[in-house]
Amino acid sequence: MHEIQRFPEDFNGVVVGAPVIDEVATNTFYHAWGVRVNSQPDGSPILTANKMPALIAAVVRACGDQQGLIADPRGCNFDLSTLTCKSGDDDACLSQAQADVVRKLWEGPIDEHGDRLSAGDMPVGSEAAWMGTMVPKQAGQKMTLETVGDYQWSYDFPHYMAGFGEPTGLTNQNKKFDRASFERLNAYSGLYDPTNPDLSGFTKQGGKLIIWQGWSDSGVSPYISLNYVHAVRDTMGTEQPDKFLALYMLPGVYHCNLYGGPTTSHEDFLTPVMSWVEDGTAPDTVVVDYSASKDGKIVPKSRAAYPYPAGIAYSGSGDVNAATSYVRAEPKQRFDDQLRWLGLDHYKPDHQLWCESKSPAIACAPR
Q: N or C, which end of the chain has less CB nearby within 10 Å?
């Protein structure tokens, strides 16, 4: 994304998968939130590994389709109270404190005014990827650098990379989720974050771009991709992006096809982008292949995907786990693709910073 925005002549065909476009907010607020909301004062987790199977199964039952996948988590209205323990406490239910953690993870970090500090957080349907990410895998483990990925991603970045020069002293353990911290930590978001929606330099070179994002991605909010494509349309015109940009939102796909989830997935976006650049054939059907889980409880399956917002529908016959049994269809529901958060003003050309060394300092400014 940096390449096509800053050096648009370098490539004429690009495939971008699971993009961390809002890198600063992701590695300061998004991942730190997962650590803080699930930590007791002694570092023990509130939501524990033994409770995750019941949560995962309940969400799939409530919102999954024929293949057990959630087509769009925004259409899932799962009522967590149905899984809350009514008396006692066992692995089949969540305590009130654990249910509160799940709600906060789905909601994402908010500041003192109730405004979002990142582009959403964990999508409904990503729960199977929380193990080892926000929930230690083994009983008795605490929330540490060694046990949970969210701790790793959000510990060093705010300390070392939020500014130039001396470390900030901020980590996921002491940073505040407030407006002042957002402004401080995002001082160089125009350098780190490739959010410039003006891709006219890339399109003048005949450039074609495919972005794909997993709806079950816990590593980066899938709403980031939707926000960016929305901004491109606002900047370049509603219809213009269809000539050079295709977005695929893939149900049941975890971060980078595998990170943290119970199954890996595979799809070929290279062939479509080559055909688009070389032959002028716009992308259409892409088949996503899902592997079986290691425990065999999730069977292998394939699924057809189309450029967003198109969805699929079961044809009425054939194997429900085969892509050939589905046809292209309009989505059952349409949603606003722009998720409001404090970083929406980053999606402008003049937010992009260019830096140069001016000894003994580094100077950054828009160009």
A: C
Contacts of 40 (CB under 8 A, 6+ apart): 46
CA 198 to chain centre: 22
Instruction: Report residue 191's pLDDT band, with 50, 70 and 90 as the boundaries.
Output: very high
Encoded tokens for 48: 């524990």
Which residue(s) pair with 365 in the sheet? Answer: 354
Residue 170 has pLDDT above 80, yes or no: yes
In angstroms, the CA 227 to CA 29 distance is 18
Taking Cα atoms as reference points, which of 215, 227, 35, 33 lies closest to residue 127?
A: 215
Question: b/e string for 81-115 if b means 16 or more Cβ within 10 A?
Answer: eebeeeeeeeeebbeeebbbbbebbbebbbbeeee
Amino acid 291 reads S
260: pLDDT strictly greater than 80: no
**Amino acid letter at 230?**
H
Instruction: Determine the pLDDT at residue 278.
Output: 97
Structure tokens, 253: 């796909």
Q: How far apart are CA 209 and CA 67, in angstroms?
A: 29
Bridge-based pairing state of the strands 311-314 and 286-290: unpaired
Domain segments of the chain: what residues?
1-367
pLDDT at position 90 is 94
The Cβ of residue 335 has, within 10 Å, a number of other Cβ atoms equal to 12
Average pLDDT, the chain: 95
